[in-house]
Here is the input.
Amino acid sequence: MSTTTDRYLSYPAAAAGISRASSGGAAWTFSAYTEVVPASTITSTFYIAGLTWCWHTPLAAVDTTYQWIIEIATGAAASETLIIQVPNSVRMDTAVGYTPSNMVIFPEPKEVAANTRISVRVAYSLATTSNTLTGIKILYKMT
Amino acid sequence: MTTTTLKLRSVAEHANGVSLTQVAPLATWKYSQWKVIAPRTNSLMYVQAISFQVTRVTTADTTYEVLLEIGFGKVGNPTLKAQVPYSFRSDTAVGIYLGKTVFFPEPFEVPAGIDVCVRYANSTASADTINGIKLIVQNDTRPVMPNETVNFNNYLHVSAPEGSVTEKTR
Here is the structure.
């Protein structure tokens, strides 16, 4: 970030993040996409620098590894194009405690054209239960 | 970090970090006041990361979200430079609330002679506190720390976590 005009911003900013439920079907079945950034919202070229989210509800079963993949896509509804995959997993021994959020920073921000719609979808390793990720926000860089 | 002279430093270093608290009247996503975290930097530096700890004991099974902001300029009207979203959930109040350090993929430049400020908003209408807010910066000289007095281009600068004062000395 070589100039003093570039900024790191959050979307959404001072508002609740996006929630996305898994499909609840077979293991590793993708959910539908949920919009994070509507089209024509960020009106100049921007660079996705990171993704944050809060772990799912309901709580994970103990001693069971939950593996997730979150996909970030560009494009209109029903025409999304994958640009970023974020793998992650969680495992716990008891439900006591708190669940730290996740902030994954990408080593190189991913360029996205102005006015592009951004959406996310999720899949996870267990079947039968629909789990919801909350607080989903992107960190992006722009001038 | 393009040269071997740049160092990664903490601001503040061996001192408490900045604390931010919401003030009444409380509301969801209401911002705290800005506070200076790096007063009147005495040379160009690059912000690489921000570290903080949220003290909120959340309602069980509710997502608690925070937005930290970094701004340049005087505390009364800084220019927004960076936003850092953060969230967590708890099932019980038992456990350890760890600090969080968020690294930016590319550091952003802070020109010499300006204040760097921070503020936050959260998703609940509560007077929560964020403690231990510090920056990790790249610099080849030691930045000015909160509560220090320095001379800068004939200006005496007195800094404090609540703000700063600068006066011409000659």
Remarks:
- Chain B has no helices and twelve strands.
